[in-house]
Amino acid sequence: MIYVGIDAASKKHDFTIMNANGEIIVKPTTISNDQAGFKKLHTEIASHTELLNEVCIGIEETGIYAKNLLSFLHASGFKVFSLNPLLTSFSQKSISLRKTKTDKIDALAICRYIRLNHMILNPYTPTLYNFDELKSLSRIRFDKLKTLSRAKCEYTRLLTMMFPEFIRHYDQHSKWAKELFEKYPTPAHIARMHNDTLCAILRVKGNRLEAASHIKALAKESIGKVSATQQLLLTSALDDIRHYESQLDIIDKAIDEIMKDFEFIKSIPGIANTTGAMILGEIGHIDRFKSASSLLAFAGLDPSVLESGEFQSKRSRISKRGSAYLRSALFTATRVACVGKGKDNKFRDKYHKKMAQN
């Protein structure tokens, strides 16, 4: 049996090879991240054994950098393991007391780790195409949603300084309010508007003319101080909000189309298309988890253990060492199922039962 450790990067990869006794038979070597580099790695591995099932290859989970190499090695018939960098970092630290970190040292640490732990690990298997698509769409949606939230906070902050009276009486995040401030960004602009022009923008319950007169009166008496910079920043924040809302709408439509093949997951209380897509995308093939506890650990929802001597912690927090995206989706689904406005379900019944016991 031989073991290969690979440290993946954007432009090149470093690898090393050990035998079953832990002896280094190929010192850390660099290959390019292209077809020539992949062939060189394959040739080097094949030169030390003719049996593919006698090769164990470990690669750190470094996002997109290792994806093509993983696919290449798996398609070549090798047994490949995708490793959590947190686990291999402990192996790297055990090599020396010195605080050193290089790609070659990382490759050696990965090789040592895979040699000692390959029997308890699950080999890499390419996920179904739809799972990969859902993972990519859900992650970019999650990130864009955070950016949109920051833009909305900035918009509210600026409006609080420029026209605080408006926020006290109207919803600044309503579609008509954003349209108003895109065209007329300051109280002075609004105060000079014609009533008919303002009425055409308003979407409020009741008499629009009265609402228009009220908004203009607030604008005339506003205590807000407006500078050219604030006006520019407000316009920029509204541009960002419009852009990211449009992007999210496109992503949601793509997710909805793929989720037509996964209607079953929406039968679970609290799960809709967006949360279901993130859960499916992050988990992938459920068969790659040996037990429910291993899936729990992958989500970072397993309890951390703190014991030393006779001391044993009475309170355990979740480890938060797994997929943050999966953890967020599960938390959202649980919250909706337990305390949302939907129908009663078993999750909600159990939640209220536990709360009553406290």
Write up this protein.
This protein is α/β, with parallel strands linked by helices. It has 15 helices and seven strands. The chain is elongated, with a radius of gyration of 28 Å. The model has no long low-confidence stretch (mean pLDDT 89).
Mean model confidence by pLDDT: 89
Strand order of the largest sheet: 3-2-1-4-5
The SSE order reads EEEHEHEHHHHHHHHHHHEEHH
Number of helices: 15
Oligomer designation: single chain
Q: Sum up the overall morphology in one term.
A: elongated
* Low-pLDDT regions: none
Q: Return Rg in Å.
A: 28 Å
Structural class: alpha/beta
Number of strands: 7
The major beta sheet can be summarized as:
5 strands, mixed
State the end-to-end CA separation: 55 Å
Strand content: 5-15%
Strand and helix map with partners:
Layout: E1 2-8, E2 12-19, E3 24-32, H1 35-46, E4 55-60, H2 67-75, E5 79-83, H3 85-93, H4 103-117, H5 129-162, H6 164-169, H7 175-183, H8 187-191, H9 195-201, H10 208-220, H11 228-258, H12 273-283, H13 292-298, E6 307-308, E7 311-312, H14 324-339, H15 346-357
Parallel strand pairs: 1-4, 4-5
Antiparallel strand pairs: 1-2, 2-3, 6-7
Features:
358 residues; alpha/beta; five-stranded mixed β-sheet; two-stranded antiparallel ribbon; 15 helices
Entry summary:
The protein is α/β, with parallel strands linked by helices.
